[in-house]
Structures are given as C-alpha cells and as structure tokens.
Amino acid sequence: MSFKTQALTATLAGAMCLATAAQADREDWPDNFTVGTASQGGTYFVYGSGWANLIADELGVSGGGEVTGGPNQNLALVHTGELALGLTTMGPAAEALAGESPLAPGVKMDNVCALFPMYETPFSITTLADSGIESISDIPDGASIGFGPAASTSDTYFPAILEELGVDFERRNGGWSDLGGQLQDGLIDVIAFAAGIPIPAVSQLEVQTDVNIIEFTEEEQQKVLEAFPVSPFQIPASTYQTLEEDARAVSMWNFTIAGCDLPEDFVYEITKLSMENNDRMRDIHRSAEFSVPENLKYNTVLPFHPGAVRWYEENGYDIPEDLKLD
C-alpha cells in the first residue's frame, strides 16, 4: 500500500470515527423540545420563540416556544420535565429553589439549571397621557392596575413594590397585549410592566395613542432597592418614542433555564450556539445585546447545567464551585 493510500485510508477512518462519535453523542438527545416563554405582547414571548426557532434550525431538532404564565410557571414546568427549556427571572428562581414558589409552596425545584444570561427586566409603569398620571404619587386611590399574567415576575413583585410606595390599587391580571388593549379602551388606569425593553405592547400603544412612561423618583427607587431583590436601572430614552430622556427604574436579571437531567452534549450545543452568535440573538430581540457570557455573574442562585459549564470553561469563563452540580 502506497503512502498516499495509507494516508487516505487513515483520513477516511478518522472521519468515520468522528461521524460515529457525533451520532452517538446525539442518541440521547430529545426528539423535540419546547421553550416556556410568557404571554404574547411581552419580550419573553418574542425572545423565547425566536431562540427556540434558532435552536431548531441549527441543531436539527424540532422545537418551538410556548405561551405560559411566565417565570414562575416556567420554573415549575422545567422542574417537572414538562418543558425542556424556559426563561426565568432571578427573584422567582431563588424562591423556587428554596421551596417558596407561589405555584408550589414547599416544593424545592432542584431540577432547574441555568444556561446563560438574557437581559435585565426593568419595572416600568405606563398610562395614557390623558389620564393625568405623570408620577407614581399621581396614581389615584383605587386605580385599576394591570400586572401581567398571574404569578409572573411582574405580578409577584410589582404589587408589593407599589404597596411599599403607598399606592392603593385594584389588581388586574392578563396578557400584556390584552392589558394594552384594556388601557387604550379605558378599562384599566395603569399597566405595571416587568419585561425586557422595548416591551412590544408599549411600542404598539405609543404608535396608536399618547402615553406616559412613569419613572421612579430617586427616593422611590432607593426605598424599593432596600426592600426588594432588585438593582437600579435607567430606561434609555432611545427605547421609546415617548421618552425624551432616560427614565429611572429598577430591574431584575433573567436567565435561560433547562432541566438539569437534559443530555450534556445537547445543552453544550445550545449554549455554544447562543453564546457564539450574538448577532443572530440580537436579530431575535435587541435586548439580547446583554445575552453575553460576561453577564453570567448575575446568576448567584441556580446551578449551571454541566453542558453550559463545559462551554464556559472551554472559553475561559470561571463558574463558582457552588454553582456546579455535585
């Protein structure tokens, strides 16, 4: 056998081994997957559905996004294995891991692992311009306020935040698009959003009518920072046509999540795809500008999935030992 023939044979054998290994790696992959998002009209739905499509297209696994009640429900559905992937916020994640989820009190949701950071969720307030409400203190007693889907991050934290600030209100729930319609029709007075910006429902509202986007005063912001697991935030003026300058707010970080028992190679490929293609992630939603590995430090709650840990460590990012599965 000539040297060229030997080399060709070795190359073909190596290629066959790689193909066999790749096939073996995929044998335990799920046939399909679903990403838990939130209600239509919110950022979670746009981000999660687009991310699901990216995974399906690039990894060749059938999948898509699903409308849910948001972070709390996504945590519960991923924990039980009813959903493979989901989106959540760090406040609800901490409560779920401690067995304090409002959906399942006493159940420690320890089959939920973090994948990568998404973006910060600002807490913001929108009213119609003709309501006369230009500040939080202007909200009249008994005002009807929409807080998003029941048990969502907004519904979990925003009522308590407004109570802390002395607002008396009547609580309403619903999807963001539906609440936007109710605000425009005069059926509710205020919407208290906790969602990534720009919020599709707000962008749609300000095209159709004049709105006020209400910011926190410095004193209100400080009072909320002292009472809740949130961070200071500025909504950039460029986010909405209505804003003439940055608006003071508070925020909470969001992460993608997966069942801890999902195959390591599957999750590794999802993490690799998501972290190495930020331009494509930004095409899904511009808030993905912050979906970069440098922001993984904002998860101090959930363990990272072993597949995600492998990608991070291969690329020079350290994961604290207490955030790795035993």
From TrEMBL:
Signal peptide (residue range): 1-24
CDD domains recorded: PBP2_TAXI_TRAP_like_2
Pfam families per the UniProt record, alphabetical: NMT1_3 (PF16868)
InterPro entries to which the protein is assigned, alphabetical: TRAP_TAXI
Source organism superkingdom: Bacteria
Record keywords: Receptor, Signal
Protein's UniProt name: TRAP transporter solute receptor, TAXI family
Natural source organism: Chromohalobacter israelensis (strain ATCC BAA-138 / DSM 3043 / CIP 106854 / NCIMB 13768 / 1H11)
